[in-house]
Amino acid sequence: MLTFETINELTLKVTCRGNDTLITKVGAFIAGESQHGKNYRFEKLLLGPQGSFAQAALGSLIRRATGENIPLMKVMFSGDSVTYYASNSRHVVIYHLEPGESISVESENLLAFTQDCDYTVRFIGVGILSQKGLATTFITGRGQNSYVAVLSDGNPIVLSNVGTQNAISVDPDAVVCWIGNGACDPQVKVDVNWKTFIGQASGESYAFEWSPGQPVTIIMQPSERSGGVHVGID
Model pTM? Predict the structure, then answer.
């Protein structure tokens, strides 16, 4: 069994009891300790973490075609141990998925997840609007030990309308992930008018919006990816 916790906000600590497997970003491992010698090993996933070869090959093809490809590796534990993972001093956010609950995350923001999670790529069709691309990495909780760790460029900001039924609007280039039951995809709102074509746009020409009837929790980072609609006349 694996448990996740953060150390100093920037490092993921994974505690293993018994035999288990962790899926993580290649190169994220920074340290580990175990009694009676090292009892974990690493194996790069050439295709993907899906169960069968056909599913893994198809998943790899889709990720490469959509820009959601990220090199992953398995950490295979054969006893009690503690290991640590990080990426470029970025903040680590941990989420425990309930069975059937899902998280949509940009591939570059994914750090690690347990094998109790189902991992796929799903089209959301907003690639012309944001660096988030045409697809999102989609992880669904399958068992009681479904943990996901994501990365944020700076201290994360969390918005949720669960219980409040508020409408939420966010900049797609600042979104790290969103969590809900099912796909829970946002609507894409575009504000392009004649001012856009003469270089007088507000700089906020598009947004992801969730309605009050869509229970969702959104994690954002206090920085934006370089992207968006750039239309104008010099």
Answer: 0.78
